[in-house]
Design brief:
- This protein has two helices and no strands.
- It is an all-alpha fold and about 70 residues long.
């Protein structure tokens, strides 16, 4: 299925937003865990969200990249 230019642009914008959120979560996790005791449940929740974002990022990237015939 071929994507229109508008669809590609929308996916690229979404990809930027997801990557930004992924970086924010990474920073949030780092800050929570660097200073002494931390809320393990909160860290696990953030890591789960980060992993879900990574899955979405991978999905969008695969839609944007043309199929390579091996």
């Amino acid at each position: 299925m071929q994507l229109s230019e508008d669809e590609k642009t929308a996916l690229k914008v979404k990809l930027i937003e997801l990557r930004d959120r992924h970086r924010e979560l990474d920073e949030q996790i780092r800050k929570l865990t660097e200073d002494g005791p931390f809320d393990q449940i909160e860290v696990q929740r953030l890591k789960k969200e980060k992993l879900q974002l990574k899955d979405e990022i991978t999905e969008i990237e695969s839609q944007l990249l043309p199929d390579i015939i091996a």
